[in-house]
UniProtKB/TrEMBL annotation:
Stored InterPro entries: PBP_domain (IPR024370), Phosphate_ABC_transporter (IPR050811)
Keywords, ordered alphabetically: Signal
Coiled-coil blocks: none
Pfam families: PBP_like_2
Protein name, as recorded: Substrate-binding domain-containing protein
PBP domain span: 17-265
Length: 296
């Protein structure tokens, strides 16, 4: 009888909550750089949980971080990870449980006009381009007029305090960067690889016809110039690699927790894989192989 009473109490408690993993509506914030993949994740979650609705506000990463202190936003998706101190402060201030996890590995792709001849760079070249001291007068173009994750990575991890050239252009969105580069031979764009990495996506396939993806010098000792493909992201061989992380803040096990769990499950990881990001919650073994052209 005690067991049945406790089960009934638990069931009643869940029913009284405004949302749960299988019901309700929530609003989350996501960095605009990851719109294609987040849209797909939401589509799959809602189709598997008919009583749910996840409203996504796409914003620059800096605004997503501000939303951590907004009671109406239950979750953010970006490349930011909280320190233990920041997580405790957020939890104590809002009286919520804070959970975060890196779920995939992304990269910043460098793109150029399809007619551009120079499409291989090392990181010294990239820094010189961004500073305006490169041998060619190229125009850097970023995704967003405010601090997106791509801009923050460029400023913090590439420039490291050095000043950006005054010629740098901030386009409104990632697809605006692609269109700008497609029309300007002297432009060089920086966008999340999830916007152009999937040749099986109709929109991204159309983007790949407009621009050319550049190769960057590998971080290992080979000196090879490589593309931001999954195998190169896995070992961080591609130099502009970053992790995609979710941060959930809830007072109970709600819809935000359910959506976060999807990202870490096999279904969510498969969605990342098909979007040509590197799944972050699975282990892989990369083996060198040699193809014999005569046998192909």
């Amino acid at each position: 009888m005690v067991y049945l009473a406790s089960c009934k109490s638990e069931k009643s408690r869940i029913e009284e909550q405004p949302d749960a993993p299988g019901k309700g509506t929530i609003t989350i914030s996501a960095d605009e750089s990851f719109k294609p993949i987040v849209d797909e994740l939401v589509k799959v979650y809602e189709s598997n949980n008919y009583g749910t609705k996840i409203n996504v506000q796409y914003k620059p990463e800096a605004d997503c971080i501000k939303d951590l202190w907004n009671d109406s936003i239950r979750m953010i998706i970006s490349t930011i990870a909280l320190t233990n101190g920041e997580s405790r402060k957020l939890s104590d201030s809002l009286k919520v449980s804070v959970d975060q996890l890196p779920v995939a590995r992304d990269a910043i792709a460098v793109i150029r006009h399809p007619g551009a001849k120079e499409t291989e760079f090392d990181m010294n070249d990239i820094k010189a381009i961004l500073a305006g001291t490169y041998s060619q007068s190229l125009i850097p173009v970023f995704d967003g007029v405010k601090a997106t994750s791509s801009v923050r990575f460029i400023v913090d991890s590439v420039m490291k305090g050095a000043k950006l050239t005054n010629r740098a252009v901030a386009a409104q969105t990632s697809d605006s960067v692609i269109n700008y580069v497609a029309k300007n031979p002297d432009a060089i764009g920086f966008v999340g690889v999830s916007w152009i990495g999937n040749p099986n996506d109709d929109q991204q396939s159309s983007f790949l016809k407009k621009v050319k993806i550049c190769r960057l010098k590998s971080t290992d000792s080979t000196g090879n110039y490589i593309l931001p493909v999954q195998a190169n992201l896995y070992g961080r061989l591609y130099p502009m690699t970053r992790d995609l992380t979710y941060i959930v803040k809830e007072k109970y096990r709600g819809l935000g927790t359910g959506f976060a769990q999807l990202m870490a499950t096999e279904i969510g990881q498969l969605i990342f894989k098909r979007a040509y990001l590197m799944p972050g919650r699975r282990y892989y073994v990369i083996r060198p192989i040699q193809l014999n052209e005569d046998s192909i």
